[in-house]
Amino acid sequence: MDKEKMRFGTKVIHAGLEPDSATGAVMTPIYQTSTYHQKTPGEHKGFAYSRTSNPTRKALENNLAALENGKFGMCFGSGLAAIDAAIKLLKSGDEVISTDDLYGGTYRIFTQIFEPFGIKFKFVPMNDMAQIEAAITSNTKMIWVETPTNPMMNIIDIAAVSAIAKKHRVLLAVDNTFATPYLQTPLDLGADIVMHSLTKYLGGHSDVVMGALVCKDAVLAERLYFIQNSSGAVCGPQDSFLVLRGIKTLHLRMQRHCENGKVIANYLKSHPKVAGVFWPGFEDHPNHEIAKKQMCDFGGMISFTLKGDLQEEAYKVMSSFRVFTLAESLGGVESLICHPASMTHAAIPKEQRQKSGVLDSMIRLSVGVEDISDLLEDIEFALNQI
Ligand SMILES: *Cc1c(COP(=O)(O)O)cnc(C)c1O
């Protein structure tokens, strides 16, 4: 079968993967080696040193490229290492326009690691295309989009931002961690680079920290492989194997994350102690139409705030869950809760945090794939404690 034409549920299991050429092993082996035999200097079977390339990592990179409808994948030791590599495409004096409601670690690497090297970041609300255009200067080299945003669950119109990026000849990078290629494929909407924290849905089992970039353009890919090899923030073969294994059930997990997410979002919306629920599947969500246009479903990430907005009440609720686990991260099979203001977004100054809506009582749910009745009972019990 033509691998280009496979549907998503087939690609997750087969794309980029061949039985092992040495042994016929159906599952990609863990090539736990740093180096490879050369017959004469430079004469080898495509692998010379595992920072540059490793067969297990390569299989994952090819699989990810196929899932994102791209051509080239690069894997890294974390999502932030992937972001680090993407920003190293730039140089001092260049400017990046970024989503303002951003993953805290991304905000931190932009402002505290790259700004001191002379790269400038402008944080712009990306529901307003005019503000993006207004922020572009002759030094702008990249637009960085995260959608759905974290934790506000705003949806940014990737195709509309792409039109602006193309008009001004700047690169468009999209952090697709929350959506996954099951829900949306940014390269098809005009993005140049897709970034993932594989730690989340793609790994899916909360047992590895890894990241990736995917692109279509060969020249861009060559530069990114050069950065991957030169900066060296690569992942090991064991972790690559775990993510490959996780991806095989991505479509099944995402389907259940979405189903459970929908039930819980609606339950929270009608709960008397809940003030606001942020989930793009609601028809009255401000970006619902964009979500419907660019995503095939609405995901299992939900944020909500409590009436009265008291942090101590949020803390009481969060420590009362028995199935949901209070922890950083998201996207695993198990349901997690977190408190964005003090956890994922602690690196963002309070004033800026509140401006983008991350209130003190906000609780973020990563709805897992457990039995929905147990999840609902757990939420009801926790909310009854206040
Ligand atoms: C977790 C996360 C990152 C960072 O990835 P790590 O694997 O933790 O380094 C970046 N963006 C988003 C949206 C994330 O959720």
Strand order of the largest sheet: 1-7-6-5-4-2-3
Tell me the CATH topology of the largest domain. Aspartate Aminotransferase, domain 2
Average pLDDT taken over every residue: 96
Task: Summarize the amount of helix as a percent range.
Answer: 25-40%
Counted up, domains total 2
The whole-angstrom Rg is 21 Å
Please report the total strand number as a whole number: 12
Q: Judging by the overall fold, what is the CATH architecture of the largest domain?
A: 3-Layer(aba) Sandwich
Listing every helix as H and every strand as E from the N terminus to the C terminus, the arrangement reads: HHEHEHEHEHEHEEHHHEHEHEEHEH
| The level-1 CATH class of the largest domain | Alpha Beta
3D architecture notes:
The chain is of the alpha/beta class. The chain has two domains: 3-247, Aspartate Aminotransferase, domain 2 (3-Layer(aba) Sandwich); 251-383, Aspartate Aminotransferase, domain 1 (Alpha-Beta Complex). It is built from 14 helices and twelve strands. A seven-stranded mixed β-sheet has the order 1-7-6-5-4-2-3, with helices on both faces. β2, α4 (104-114) and β3 (120-124) form a beta-alpha-beta unit. The longest helix has 20 residues, at 250-269. The model has no long low-confidence stretch (mean pLDDT 96). Bound molecules: pyridoxal-5'-phosphate. Pyridoxal-5'-phosphate (PLP) binds at residues 78-80, 103, 105-106, 146, 150, 175, 177-178, 197, 199-200, 209, 211.
